[in-house]
Structures are given as structure tokens and as C-alpha cells.
């Protein structure tokens, strides 16, 4: 009985707190659907496809509206003009990352992706410098990708044209490319540590795209202590940190201060130079988290895009023909560009980015400092006016009437502004070279009629994950 009374008191307090917070914020936030106490607007959102729910709400409330994920108000920015204002026009005011509990738990405010303030500025600036030194955007990294593409081709040949699930095979190449940048060396595809690393990245990508993680981010204090896939995510992170720390220790033993060979070496040298600076952002913990950020981002997005891209080509064999016709010299290059960008347009890998407002105006609304902003990239990438029939896979979105390649300001697959993906150039080069290598050496054979292939996302939360499928790689 006493426990029941305590629960009633706690629940009443939470409801009072929610109602007071909503009243206090009234007039400072854009309008939106009326939230329920405690749960907010969660019941009004399809957690299996949040983007679709946001689009429907935008029809009623316009490009800027407020949602409550639990008791936390979030201003949603929907559509090209509003997203452009946040990411580009006022990029400085909206450069801070908003709180994402699952990421906060993992990264602890460190690294390059979910950090803020001085630690973000210094880590990002340093990481971009190192990546350029390691060949990003240069011929050296292109050769490295081409060498790894040959290894991938050999691995695919070993399937002997039999049906296979390409999930892990397609992750090995981008995994080795990024490993060669941060660890100095590539791994054999049979290496146990390498296979475990690829497994963790794939499993984490699926977990963060589930409705459960959406709920975890809304109610972290409650769900953190309950059974659920978030525990698997945190366990995987712990194992990955162990792997990364072992590599760092190996580098510490062989470090040549005058001859850095990879990302870890550069960071360790920076740590040594600033060892007497108590305010330095270059610490061992930040190195571990930064490596995890670079490793995960470098593997996950590229491997999922490759897997999703092959699925789309299986569904649309006519597109494959337009980019592999040996009888043409220039058109396939244009079509390749258009096809790759359409992959990213269709998939919308990074859909919702959370920012923290630093006191400014947004459209017609004045927002107080610290307001959480959620930008919907899908609303830009799937804009029906810029890309007619955006739900259809059509490379023609990036070709003009003469068949020439055309750019679009709406293409924000890698985000935009100050928080644009640091590895965009590397990802584009990898996707092009790896897909070209696959299609030069193999014919893709689906196991079912292309008409019956499902290209809708299996999971669409923080990212998009395709349905499981098998394919035969028939040597040309």
C-alpha cells in the first residue's frame, strides 16, 4: 500500500512538472500537436517510420513545429527552406549538437560527431587535417580503395555464383579502407578480430534504427535500467573500445615522433606536444572516442549504401545496363554520378540530425538558448517539387533533358554546413570505385523476380537498413 502511495505521488509530481514546463514554454515555442502528460507526442508518431509522421504533421503545422518526445520539447524543422536556414544560413547559431541520450551514454561528450564547443572544434579541425594528410581527396587514397576493391572481387569470386547474403562481404572493403587510415594496416577477411569488428558495426546500425532506441532517447532514465537492445549496443561499444585501446597501446610502443604513419600516430604526437596543457582536448579518452566515431561512420554508411545500392540495381536491371554499357564512353560516367546520388537520395541514411539552438530566430519564431532542434533531411531529399516521384528510384533526378548531369542544392545526403560529414569525399570515392569493380567483374542475379523485390527500409529510425536478401555474383 505504501509503495502504491509513493508511485501515485511520483506520477502526480511528474504530471505537474510536465504541465508547468509546457505552460512555461508556451509562447516561446512554435505550435504543434497537443502532448499528453509524461509521454508527450510519442503515441502520435509511428516509431517505425518517424519521417513519414513528421511529414504528415508538417502539413498541419507548417515547416517549423514543436513535438514532445516524452517530457522534452523539440522543435522540428521540415522542408528545404527551413532546413537550409538551420544548416547553412545560420550554421553558427545551430552548430551545437543537441542531446541524444543513447549517443551521450556512449560518447560522453567526446569525439567528432556528438561533441560540442571547443572539444568539437579542435577535434574536427585536427581530424580533417589528418585525413587530408592520409590521402583523403588525393590519388593515394584512390589507389588504396582500388587495391581493396580487388580483394573484394576475389572474395566474391569464392562464392562461385551461389546465392549469398552480401551483408558482411560488402562491409569488409570499407572497413579495411578506414582501418588502413587509422590503424596503418588492413586485415585479412578471415581475421577473427576483423570479423568481430564488422559484426559489431552491422549490429549497432540495426539497433540504432529500431523503435526501441527512439523510445530510449525519449525516456532514457526509465529504459536504461530495463532489458532491451540498448544493452547490446553498449556492450558492443565496450568491446570495440577494448579493440581500439589495444591498437593504441601497440602504437605507443612503436611511435616515431618524427614520422607519423596513421591517424593514431598523429593524435599521440599531438597528445605528447600538449601533455603539459591541463586544458588540452587531446586526451586518451578523446582519442578512443574519435577513433570509434571515424571507424563507425567510415564503415557503416558506406557498407549499408553498397548493400542497399545492389538491392536497388537488382530491382531495376535497366539502370545497371545504363551504367555498364561498354559501347558508350561518356554517358556511363554521367549516369554513374546520377545513380550514386540517387542511391543516397533514396536511402536517406542519416535522416534526423539533432542540434542545440544558441539563441536566435527561426522562420517567424524566436527560440531561447538551448532549444533542441531536429532537422528532417528526408523532407529535403524527398521533396516532390525538386525530385518528382521521390519515392521511386530514378537516376533521372540528376540528369537534365539533354542527359547531362545536374547538381541540386536539395542534395543533403551528407548533411550541410558546419556539421557536414567530414568523410564525404572518401565515401563518394569508395562507393564509386567499389561498385564499378563489382559490376565490371560480375552480373548480379536475383533469386526472385525483380518485381517482387522489396526496397522499402526494413528499419528507419536514426538511419535506414534494407531488408535481408540474397544475390548471386556471376563472374563476367
TrEMBL record:
This is Uncharacterized protein. PROSITE patterns: CYTOCHROME_P450 (PS00086). Its main location: endoplasmic reticulum. The keyword Oxidoreductase applies. Belongs to the cytochrome P450 family. Keywords: Endoplasmic reticulum, Heme, Iron, Membrane, Metal-binding, Microsome, Monooxygenase, Oxidoreductase. InterPro entries: Cyt_P450 (IPR001128), Cyt_P450_CS (IPR017972), Cyt_P450_E_grp-I (IPR002401), Cyt_P450_sf (IPR036396), Cytochrome_P450_fam2 (IPR050182). Pfam families: p450. Its cofactor is heme. It comes from the Eukaryota. Signal peptide: none annotated. GO terms for cellular component: endoplasmic reticulum membrane. Coiled coil: none annotated. It is found in: Endoplasmic reticulum membrane; Microsome membrane.
